[in-house]
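Whiteboard transcription, Tuesday session. T.W. wrote the structure tokens on the left side:
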């Protein structure tokens, strides 16, 4: 997974304010204080946007074919999520992994933690990654970890996989499964489409399924969309698996948003991130 930038027809990566979803106009804008936004979750430190020299190489943009296709999911919907809230966060202290040998990933914009394998590289909790969709929507990711970071020579912050938290508003979708599915499609369009060429990536939506998190207290819903990107980039992979693991609204009552763990992973390459690893990451989600 290498990052866009410097290649015609590739999607643009934006610096955005993760609290407001608004783009920052230039590098100087990145350093000004972010506006306060009221939310139902406890107050947190404001996210720090990645420096200008690091924005190239955040996500790979690949090419195989030019015709956009869409395959609707026909499988039966997953069982309804249990109407349980996540347990209150524990007293402040060091966050330990719940999976032995793994490492916890924290976000300053989400009161949630998940674990990743020891060979993943972690960004600071206040780092955010943002992209713009062809429709002009901004999508952001916080609490970021990367697999095989800097694998591609000459591409800053390249990685074969990336994971982090994002959200989708309750009013934008009709169900938990739709929240997971729509999240994967938005990121497919934003990170793997061709804005200048007007070409969308090919997408194939997989079957939704349950993921038990937090020691059985909450049932999330997972959807994986396979993407064949529309634009080429250095060190590219033939396809990418985008998995969204969406938590029910009851997990964080009053927020009005579905919180989603998103994993973007190159496929058809040596040593790709396996699906069972992605689901294991989802099972480790818990409150700080």
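and on the right, the sequence the group agreed on:
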């Amino acid at each position: 997974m290498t990052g866009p930038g410097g290649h015609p027809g590739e999607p643009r990566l934006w610096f955005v304010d993760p609290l407001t979803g608004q783009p920052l106009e230039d590098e100087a804008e990145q350093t000004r204080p972010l506006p306060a936004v009221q939310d139902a979750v406890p107050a947190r430190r404001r996210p720090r946007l990645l420096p200008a020299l690091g924005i190239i190489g955040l996500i790979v943009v690949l090419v195989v074919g030019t015709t956009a296709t869409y395959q609707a999911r026909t499988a039966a919907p997953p069982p309804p999520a249990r109407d349980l809230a996540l347990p209150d966060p524990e007293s402040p202290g060091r966050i330990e992994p719940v999976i032995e040998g793994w490492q916890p990933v924290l976000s300053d914009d989400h009161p949630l933690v998940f674990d990743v394998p020891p060979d993943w590289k972690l960004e600071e909790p206040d780092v955010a990654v943002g992209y713009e969709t062809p429709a002009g929507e901004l999508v952001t990711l916080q609490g970021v970890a990367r697999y095989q970071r800097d694998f591609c020579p000459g591409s800053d912050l390249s990685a074969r996989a990336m994971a982090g938290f994002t959200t989708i508003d309750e009013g934008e979708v009709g169900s938990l499964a739709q929240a997971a599915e729509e999240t994967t499609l938005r990121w497919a369009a934003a990170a793997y489409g061709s804005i200048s060429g007007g070409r969308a990536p090919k997408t194939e939506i997989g079957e939704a399924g349950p993921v038990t998190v937090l020691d059985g207290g909450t049932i999330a819903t997972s959807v994986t969309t396979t993407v064949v990107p529309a634009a080429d980039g250095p060190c590219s992979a033939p396809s990418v698996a985008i998995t969204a693991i969406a938590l029910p609204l009851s997990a964080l009552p009053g927020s009005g948003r579905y919180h989603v763990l998103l994993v973007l992973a190159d496929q058809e390459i040596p040593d790709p991130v396996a699906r069972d690893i992605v689901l294991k990451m989802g099972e480790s989600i818990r409150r700080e």
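Someone added at the bottom: Residues 3-10, 26-92 have pLDDT under 50 and may be disordered.
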